[in-house]
Design a protein that fits this description.
With 513 residues, the chain is mainly α. 65% of the residues lie in helices and 4% in strands. The N and C termini lie far apart (87 Å). Component of the eukaryotic translation initiation factor 3 (eIF-3) complex.
């Protein structure tokens, strides 16, 4: 422990950082933030949180942590809850700008435990911006993921680090993380609130979760965002069914509080789409990726000054890669908007053509795109402290990649079947068997496999089809049923109307002599 404290002191000295020095601008920041929180002035809190905190971080604390909580506590009447909120921001800044030590990771866990205990069991009379409440849940899950990755790299751990890991074996424990998120969902009664809203008995979405009757939005909105947090944690663990189940109370076909914060919107759809991809619900994944990619395309310029802009762009690229995978395994381009489709062709057109061949090169591309776009999977179990120490941080990723490629390879059989079915409206089993150079019993097996692989069970337990070409067999003859996409003329006419209006406006502006 002494060595760990010495390591942190050395780190701060090397950076020329004095945790007890509070610049006047920071003093002013905490005093004003404290006052606005007490007055429930959500607009001002949001401005300070989103703008002032980022500006001060950039100007004064680019490579160092903020002043310690002990140094600022007396400026805010040693208010316990404010100090927990300040430390939450302090650790988030540390994770973003520096590499936290093991002791700091453990301290951050303790701070989240204290903060969530106050929210769950105390009387919290605050209104905080949705952005901050989302960031709390988002960072909580991120730090859990980061800790699991850090702990799994056992090879180069020092004796002090191993001793600390043994001593604090409950820090960032997977059950602790899941229990906090689940407790926030249950204590907030958010599921019942959303049910009552459908019957017109509650107003949650209409007010973006804020309470305009003098109450607090903190527990309700944290409970709401915790459902997204649970989806994300279960995806990191590879439990996609449970992840989607946790998100069911939120109707993602509609606008909601999750869409009020861009980070929450993107995280929700990215993990929901990825979970559906892994469950072979390709149509649902394509539909949701298409909607969010179109939304980002139309709105990303408004987020250029946001601290999350780079993250938005990265997730945007990853979701294009996942969409390319979905459309290669389930060619349903009719579900994709023209704008998204042209972006997709620009980025992955050539690779998607190669992925259709199902040879070694195609599987290498599937591997490349999956590895680039998948979440950073984790192994939540504690490490073995026995010698020799080994790294196991890649184990979960390798397992998920193996399962995904196994699924992609099974599609190889189906590509041949799909090609023939697209050409014929009826064909005898014997004729198709001779074309595919297999005997009839083998062809029947392949056709059963096609049926199985192009159908999936949705969240309601209903069997849904992903197939663009379906068939039935009657009297040893295959009858093909091709789904004819409904032609959409609306978009085309709207674009032409906008063009015409532009021309008319230009003509109106021309002055004739």
């Amino acid at each position: 422990m002494a060595n760990q404290d010495f390591e942190e002191r050395q780190q701060t000295q090397e950076l020329g950082y004095d945790p007890n020095f509070v610049p006047d601008s920071v003093k002013s920041f905490v005093v004003h933030l404290y006052r606005h929180i007490r007055e429930k002035n959500v607009y001002e809190i949001h401005q300070m949180y989103e703008s002032s905190f980022q500006t001060l971080s950039e100007r004064l604390f680019k490579d160092t942590p903020w002043p310690s909580v002990d140094a600022v506590a007396h400026y805010v009447d040693n208010d316990h809850v404010f100090c927990l909120l300040y430390r939450e921001m302090w650790f988030r800044h540390l994770y973003a700008r520096l590499t936290p030590t093991l002791r700091q990771r453990i301290d951050s866990w303790d701070n989240y435990c204290s903060l969530f205990q106050v929210v769950l069991h105390g009387v919290v009379n605050m209104q905080l911006p949705n952005q901050w409440l989302w960031d709390m849940v988002d960072e909580f899950v991120y730090q859990f993921q980061s800790f699991c990755q850090y702990r799994a790299k056992m090879k180069n751990k020092t004796e002090q680090e191993i001793a600390l890991l043994r001593q604090f074996d409950q820090a960032w424990n997977v059950y602790g993380v899941l229990n906090f998120l689940q407790a926030l969902v249950e204590k907030s009664t958010i599921i019942q609130i959303l049910d009552q809203e459908k019957e017109g008995l509650e107003q949650f979405t209409a007010t973006d979760g804020y309470d305009y009757n003098g109450g607090s939005n903190v527990l309700k909105v944290l409970g709401y965002f915790s459902m997204v947090g649970l989806l994300r944690v279960h995806c990191l663990l590879g439990d996609y069914h449970t992840g989607i189940k946790c998100l069911l109370p939120i109707d993602i076909s509609q606008q909601g509080v999750y869409t009020s914060v861009i980070g929450s919107h993107i995280t929700t759809i990215y993990h929901y789409g990825f979970a559906n991809l892994m469950l072979r619900r390709y149509v649902e994944a394509i539909r949701e990726f298409n909607k969010i990619l179109l939304y980002i395309f139309k709105t990303k310029q408004y987020h250029q000054k946001s601290s999350q802009y780079e993250q938005i762009l990265k997730k945007n690229e990853q979701m294009y890669a996942l969409l390319a995978i979905c459309l290669s395994l389930c060619p349903q381009s009719r579900l994709v908007d023209e704008t998204v489709n042209s972006q997709l062709r620009e980025k992955y057109g050539e690779k998607m053509a190669r992925m259709q061949r199902y040879d070694d090169e195609a599987f290498a591309i599937y591997d490349e795109l999956f590895s680039y776009a998948c979440p950073k999977f984790i192994t939540p179990s504690a490490p073995s402290f026995e010698e020799p120490l080994v790294n196991y941080n890649q184990d979960a990723y390798r397992l998920q990649l193996k399962l995904f490629l196994y699924e992609a390879k099974q599609q190889q059989l189906l590509s041949g079947v799909r090609t023939f079915l697209k050409v014929y409206s009826t064909i005898s089993l014997a004729k198709l068997a001779s074309y595919m150079e297999v005997d009839e019993p083998t062809l029947r097996t392949i056709l059963m496999t096609y049926k199985h692989k192009t159908h999936a069970v949705d969240s309601d337990g209903k069997i849904t089809s992903n197939a663009d070409v379906d068939f039935y067999i009657d009297d040893d003859t295959i009858h093909v049923v091709e789904s004819k996409p409904a032609k959409r003329y609306g978009d085309y006419f709207l674009r032409q109307i906008v063009k015409l209006e532009g021309v008319i406006n230009e003509m109106d502006g021309i002055k004739l002599d």
